[in-house]
Amino acid sequence: MSLVRMLNAAAVASVGACVAASFVTVGSVTLSAQGPAAKAPAGKWVPERLADGHPDLHGVWANNTVTPLERPKQWEGKTTLTEKEIAELQGIANQIYDNDGDAQFGDGLILAVLDKQTNPKSGDKLTGNYNQFWLVGRDWHDRRTSLITDPPDGKIPAVKPEAKARIEAEQAHRKAHAYEDPEMINLGERCVNFGVPRLGAGYNSYSQIVQSPGYVTVMAEMAHDARVIPVNGRGHLPSSVRSWNGDAIAKWDGDTLVVDTTNFSQKSDFRGSHENLHIIERYTRVSHDILNYEVTIDDPTVWTKPWTVMIPLKLKNELIFEYACHEGNEAMEGMLKGHRFGEKQGAATKSNDQQQ
Fold first, then answer.
1. Bridge partners of 150?
2. Prediction pTM value
């Protein structure tokens, strides 16, 4: 277990423990319903199946891949890496770890490696630096140069001009009114919601999947949101019913679980996409310890076309503990007081200038 998991474990509250216990109970029922794996041609892996005949997807799956979301400029036109190239990259990454400098979250690690920065600095200048011990070890089993599979260039499609203008206006408004009131503080900082899909790797990037009759539950480590998804043929809820993580329904396409999610709230936010976000996720177990997670992201009011990401999740013999965030919004009072103090200081300065 990594140190960050040990730290999280120490912060588990009684409610979180109850939630975890309920998942363990459901998981044990699912396991007992397993059927034998069918015989397969030599060399072909066949998944264990549950009593309903569908593949067993249960387990704790990690997105710790080092592969970047978008293809970096250094790898333009290149889709996969050789074993020699991977070894060279790992050598530079090991130097970063040995220096025990600032933590590199998400794509930060591989981008630092490509730039040959053996002691990179944190990208967040406001909250201070995290040391490397905050991070789990990264997985190098994926040889691709981007998680994006479509478009083929490995880049997120262009944002439409009107959407770009709206997103920039939203960002400017939040910056100008930051900490003015609780609603202006971003959702993650308030521990309200971290959204779906979550594509970032290497920091609280685990998910637990539990299957039960008629439902599949996907619990995210960040921040213990549990999506209880019906696999019973029901359609989407009326468009008037909206939620942070949308309305998800699922079906099986052969051995692939397909999850279709619409009805996001106007307050949901995925890269500037709000209520018009539509995602289709595909979960396919391709080996004992690899679950391919493919998600197609679409919002015709934001991007010029849909785009698809595939993340090879890795099975981990670990538990998910509660991500405590800041319990009871204890930091909220200080943030708002700080802003009120800044307002008073600004008003006093303005008054003095006018008197002079």
1. 308
2. 0.83
